[in-house]
Amino acid sequence: MSFIFPEWRQRLARSLHVSRSKPESKYIQIATHAPVLGVQNRTVVFRGFVEDSHVLQCITEKDSDKYRALQYAQESEICWYFPKTREQYRLSVHTQLVGSTDNEAGLRQQMWQNLSVASKQSFIDNQKLDLAQSCGPRHTEVGTDSPTEEVCPHEQVPENFILILCSVYAVDYLILSEPHQRFKSFCEMNEWVEESAKP
Is the pLDDT of residue 1 over 60? Predict the structure, then answer.
């Protein structure tokens, strides 16, 4: 049985297609709340949906406030605005943080392979900095004959690389052009229901 795309996914696909020439169309805002950190909102990059699902993918580092906040509270909201079409999507999501030992580690590995070299390098450089600060300088023994295996650092997924899976369970869609329109969608018993709402 083929995967069914509800109305909101079809709209979002159109919004992304129309705005495909605009790099900022992949920027989304995700809001979190946690003790000490309080309410925070930051911009992250949308990195596609998990195949045959309504699960968005983003990435972060293990030592970030974003990671700490989502560890505390998995519920979050994503706001996505497309200036070209004047559309706004507010997505209610349940988040999951995926590290090297989690069940979805395969998705994390796949995401790492799809990143640009520049994106990978930022994670590698930050991890090296963390190791240097926590362990101090490393000394190698002179005169050892032990062979060293050279591995391209870009092929190894750093421990600080975290995949964020955002499972969408409700959508508030607003068209800001005239006339304003608004539609709310939510998942009920694995079925998506949509209703018109006041803008």
Answer: no
